[in-house]
Amino acid sequence: MQNFIFVERIDPKKRNVVERIKDFREIYELYNPNEASSQSDRCIQCGDPYCHNKCPLHNYIPQWLKAVAEKDLELAFNLSNEPSPFPEIMGRICPHDRLCEGDCTLNDGYGAITIGPIETFINEEGFKAGLKPRFAEEKIGKKVAIVGSGPAGLSAATYLLRAGIDVEIFERSDRPGGLLTYGIPGFKLDKNVLFRRVKWLEEAGMKIHYGVEIGKDKPFDELVNAFDAVFIGVGASQQKRPAIPNEQAKGCLMAMDLLVNVQKKLFGDPFDKQVDVREKRVVVIGGGDTAMDCVRTSLREGAKSVTCLYRRDARNMPGSRKEYTNAKEEGVEFVFNASPKQVLVNDEGHVVGIEMLKTALGEADESGRQRLKEIEGSEFRVSADIIIFALGFNPVPFEFLSANGIETNEWGGIVIDKNYETTTKGVYAGGDCYRGADLVVTAVYDGREAAKAMIREFIG
To answer: Average pLDDT of 155-163?
Structure first.
């Protein structure tokens, strides 16, 4: 170990930009065993590993790096899969530069260990070698209903099945995965990778009921009465609008309008053909990972031009740095320090552009983030045929929550205690429906911890 002095950080190869913008295949190649071992061997094995501490799942990162460096694939695989329900997915989509890699000691002059790509390598190489996730063979006679098959729901299901608890998921869509399926494009996560995990969960005994919306197709209290516990993992899908004139004009879309419909089209499912950006001038408002997904999807859908407008500067973008870099490589134009003022429309009420106001960053607020100031008289116009708002999400105020005594806070998040139990006994919740829009990895953490709380309740 500690070969960082002799071996530089080398990221996985990316597909040629001219080719990759023609399809939705993943853009990163996998390490081969020698590359993974060499990159892992750069780890200095910190006594107090910052990477482990910064990871919401507290993955055993130094330990599996050491195992990869020594080419002990089975040990690395087992270490990787213990605290994470699907590490081959998290290795692809986590914002490592903001989490584990962002806190790597080697950032100070040498370049962080490529933790995400190595995590992906461990599992894909392990699967090739015949390794598979393990689940309990004997059941304990308890069963849990899970509402939603997104990151939190699938994570909870994984740990419940490992403990021998039966799981049934109720999913309103006709495919599993929630955000992982419809909110994260294939160039970041091949859907077959996700569906492979779901298949293993089904082989372990999980049942999924598709096309069932709780509170509409099936009463929530039926779950409470029929199961030993219920976990709510419905995410936060209420999209935020900018509250500006003409924001609902023809040609204005919300981020998920684009992402969901494009994914449905790729599946060969029915989709809204009015959501079409081909040969259009597309403007995306926002600076997070969802905005990056929208700009990169628009390029692949044949947009004439794609511009991303963000009210702060590049350094303050909330999304992953590598996604911003990938978007720039692929031809997206970025305009920073610009806040939307009003959507401009023609006589037919269709979008022709957006009026923006220049901004500047001022003093830091209580959180340490610089305050945003709008510069009077600095209006400018950006021409557009399609405007996509990617401004974040809020929890949906489902009627079945209050009707069943499940309290929510002032912004709609489900109230839970330290054991992830809601104000209704036996009903648990986690992920974005509790936190508000956050990272996939935090939803995964919530699902894991809620499952552990249920297991403690069942078997002590």
So the answer is: 98
